[in-house]
Each structure stands twice: as C-alpha cells, then as structure tokens.
Amino acid sequence: MSAVTRLWCRLEEALVAFLLAVMTLITFVYVVVNNVYAVFYYLADRSAFLEEPLLAMGDGLLFVSQEMTWSIALTKAVFGWLIFIGLAWGVRIGAHLGVDLLVKTFPPALRKAVALLAVGICIFYCGLMTYSSQQWVAALMNANIGAEDLDRFGLRQWHIVMIVPIGFALMLIRFVEVFLRILRNEQSGFGGHSEAEDALRLVDGQHGTERQP
C-alpha cells in the first residue's frame, strides 16, 4: 500500500470518527440543555434563599434550548455526510455482504466474470450518480438557497448536499480499485470474504439438516 493510499485511508477513518463524534455531541448537548432547565426551576421552588439565581440559570438554559432549533438540522446534515463518507469506507472494508454473497454462489470458473460484471455495474451506477448529483449541486449553487435553520450561520443548501457527488465519486474510486484487484486475481469478490463464507456455510448447514431423515 502506497503512502498516498495509507494517508487517504487514515483521513477517511478520521473523518468518519469526527462526524460521528460531532453528531453525538450536538445531540447530547441539546438533550441536556432541553431538560436541565426544569431542574433549576424545581430547586428554585424549594429554596427561598437561592430562588433568584436558580431561576436566572433556568431561564438562561431555557433560552439556549429555544435557540438550539438549529441543532436538529445540523445533526441531519452531519448524518448525511457520515452516510456518504461511510459508503466509500464500506466498499474499502468489504462491507457489501449481499453482493459478495451472490458472487460466491457461482462456480469458481464463473466467479471472476460475475464479480467483474457486478463491480462494473456498481462503477457505472456511481459514475452516473456522480454526474447527475453534481448537476443538482450546481443548480443549488446558482439558486443560492439558504439551508433550513442553518442559514443564520451562512450555510446554503449546496454546502450540505455537495457531499452527494463527493461520496459517489469516492465510491467510484473504491469500486475501480476492487475491479482492478479482481482483474489481477488478488481477490475473488467485493472483499467481504469471511462474512460471505460464514453465511454460505450457514445456508449449507441448514440444507443439510433438512435432508437428514
């Protein structure tokens, strides 16, 4: 593996971890802020000495909670980025078990041709989606429409959805890598070897059980 490929893989993993952490942190803060202010109101009702500071803190947290309507929209946007970055990552680690399982059901003599055909279809689909989604992003750039609940931060819709062509382009590159490895006989399917083989053994075991008298 070249230094560039290793760097790309590390950046991909770091970005997935970062997006997951951001999404979790935003959700956690919103849930806490949206519920903790009631505690201060409860304590203020039962403490005459600290009533005013507790009410002030409760009012402050309630205000922050009401102002954090943007957190839901931001969480959805981050989740969308996580999905499309994760799709390319899934191709790299061979997580597409369904297609790999289908390829491995064919005899070894046909397996390579079927695998190349399956990966070729995936490459065509990713290329088509990369081009069409890029046209969609370009139209949104020209329209310059603000993102719902996020326009206060200067975010436009195209800032969020530009991950769609980026994600499909990354998947396209990953599928090309898989295609070349299959062509060079470095792998026989999509890369999910152990999972697919375990599933096939499970199916064979069930059929064997059914045939027993």
Automatic annotation (TrEMBL):
Q: Which GO terms describe its molecular function?
A: transmembrane transporter activity
Q: Which residues cross the membrane?
A: 15-42, 79-102, 114-132, 158-180
Compartment(s): Cell inner membrane
Q: Which residues belong to any copy of the Tripartite ATP-independent periplasmic transporters DctQ component domain?
A: 65-184
GO biological process annotations for this chain's record? C4-dicarboxylate transport
This protein's superkingdom? Bacteria
InterPro entries in the record, alphabetically? DctQ (IPR055348), TRAP_DctQ (IPR007387)
- Stated role: Part of the tripartite ATP-independent periplasmic (TRAP) transport system.
Quaternary structure, per UniProt, is: The complex comprises the extracytoplasmic solute receptor protein and the two transmembrane proteins.
Family per similarity comment: Belongs to the TRAP transporter small permease family.
- The protein in question is named TRAP transporter small permease protein
The taxonomic lineage of its organism, from the top, reads:
Bacteria, Pseudomonadati, Pseudomonadota, Gammaproteobacteria, Pseudomonadales
